[in-house]
Amino acid sequence: MSTTQGTHSLAFRVMRLCRPSFHVEAPLRVDASDLIVGEDIFDDPIAASRLPPLIDAHVTKLTDTSDLTYRTRFLLQHPSDSFGLTGLLVLPQAFGAIYLGETFCSYISINNSSNFEVRDVTIKAEIQTERQRILLLDTSKSPVESIRAGGRYDFIVEHDVKELGAHTLVCTAVYNDGDGDRKYLPQFFKFIVANPLSVRTKVRVVKETTYLEACIENHTKTNLYMDQVEFEPAQHWSANIVKADEHKSEKDSLSREIFKPPVLIRSGGGIHNYLYQLRSSSNGSAQSNILGKLQITWRTNLGEPGRLQTQQILGTPVTHKEIELCVMEVPSVINLDKPFSVHLNLKNHTERELGPFEVWLSQNDSLDEKAVMINGLQTMELPQLKAFGANDFHLNLIATKLGVQKITGITVFDKSEKKTHVPLPDLEIFVDLD
User: Fold this and answer.
1) Domain closes at, from 159, 194, 229
2) Cβ-contact 340, 393 below 8 angstroms
3) Is this prediction's pTM over 0.85?
4) In angstroms, how far apart are the furthest CA atoms of the chain?
5) Fewest CB within 10 A of the end CB: N or C in the chain?
């Protein structure tokens, strides 16, 4: 764990500071009824009904305070006894695992094991990773005046762990020994930082709305309580978390707003999924495929905090239409060779005025093959649309064939920009006899 050069009066001792753990008793406890009767007693309803008074009387005798034999120490006195938790805490017995996002806290003691006093002690403590070297303590401007023979100097350092992999705590001391020589003492303490959880994301686009699914898996040996899992959207994006419907009373809803219970992700592979609905606040095509990043904070069983931030999450840029043509209503009954009207809506998704427009049915098929045609003028004129405006209109059609038919090729043409927009997807209708 450490290396020194030559003979030194001083030596570093390092202890990690962390919270204690619960003490769990291994012995198995039993129910008092198991010591008196067998499980077949429940086959007889009368006998089973007389069991509780019998058990209470027997346990009362066993729990006599004057009895010092502790015969009842393996009996379940309370349902919580079955968990094996005694209410006692145990101090850490080893250096333990260190995880990304935690705060590494170390108690360092520099001991003088010689028979003489050392003076003018300059102490440095640094964390060295593959990428950087971080100074935690430096007493160069105010050295420790002296450390007596057999004495020590103690200090605490903290470091927010933000990198995975090998870390080295480098402790150095420069001091004057009993002979007046200036000596340099370096010691190195190595440890590995592991990943406490993994975050897997999936991006889906449904009807121009982007959904982000985040799956968080716990890789530690302790339960993690998620205080916060929030998605910070990139510029021009907004995000809302999607939750299942919960039918709670108004009192419960108010209390949940004041105190939000953490989400438990169990140790050794427990997972929890989060779903976010993302919307672009800019019109037109997205300029970047960066959606944003997740901010995650948690606590362990005894409240030790942790915090992680993911890298930028990427998605496929969503192309928004300048003009959107939507079907509002189609008649439920359509008769052969009888005119009918389709209710349509034309929306302007830009910040500028567009139009005027022409609407028609594309003539890809011959008139003999076309099952649905415009009834009247083949081209319909529509006025200009203001920025973010909309216009409802009706397109008069007539069906010339029976059965399931398709209305195909409803097309919008912008007369001012001389631009033809993508036709409306095919609409299926059923044509019947009058």
Assistant:
1) 194
2) no
3) no
4) 118
5) C
